[in-house]
Amino acid sequence: MKKVPVGVSARHIHLSQEHIEILFGKGYELKVLKDLSQPGQYAAEETVAVVGPKGRFDKVRILGPARSKTQLEISRTDSYALGIPAPVRESGDIAGTPGVKIIGPAGEVEIEEGVIVAARHIHFHTEDAKKWGIEDKQKLRVRVIGERPLIFEDVIARVSDQFALDMHIDTDEANAAGVKNGGEAIILDE
Q1: Mean pLDDT, rounded, for 95-123
Q2: Do 57 and 100 meet the contact criterion of CB atoms below 8 Å apart?
Q3: What is its EC number (predicted)?
Q4: Which of 19, 103, 136, 157 is least enclosed by beta carbons within 10 angstroms?
């Protein structure tokens, strides 16, 4: 049986160093609140506000370290509340996506693109993928174990030496399955 831990991703933002400095001040560096499941990734102490045409979210957690491009990851429910038609995309694939206004304690910035609903995916360390015969970008069927178990289709395999085994779903998906952070999923054979 191919068991995988489940990580539930609430709305969060990845910022470029340029935007960190606009929002928090020149030379500012994020402070680590807690480490995340992926090596070198962390939830920062800092938060920002994001403002869309219909709504606003305060205290949106920043995930570090800084990225090359700023990206806001929200759920479909969040996209309705903000009034932003965010497409489902893999992290980093932001070309042609909507933008948003971001407000920090030292300034604000309006990004032209970068708002997505993250596609559900599983991070595999290269060795785990090899052991299970899974290739990068392969689409998988995965049963999430929860109060209301669900089978998710088209779960994207992301394989790298830099990853630790973990399935990432957003809060809408987690709520639908009745699963919490640290839950369990099983990769189903095709």
Answers
A1: 98
A2: no
A3: 2.3.1.222
A4: 136
pTM, rounded to two decimals: 0.94
The predicted model gives 158-180 an average pLDDT of 97
The per-residue pLDDT for range 9-35, each reduced to its tens digit, is 999 999 999 999 999 999 999 999 999
Q: Where are the domains of the chain?
A: 10-118, 120-188
Q: Residue 69: which residues within 8 A CB-CB, separation 6 or more?
A: 14, 16, 92, 94, 114
CA distance 144 to 167: 10
Q: Does domain 120-188 have CATH number 3.40.50?
A: no
pLDDT score, position 190: 60
Within 47-140, where are the H helices?
A: 76-82, 126-132
pLDDT reported for residue 59: 98
Partner residues linked to 60 by β-bridges? 48
SS3 177: helix
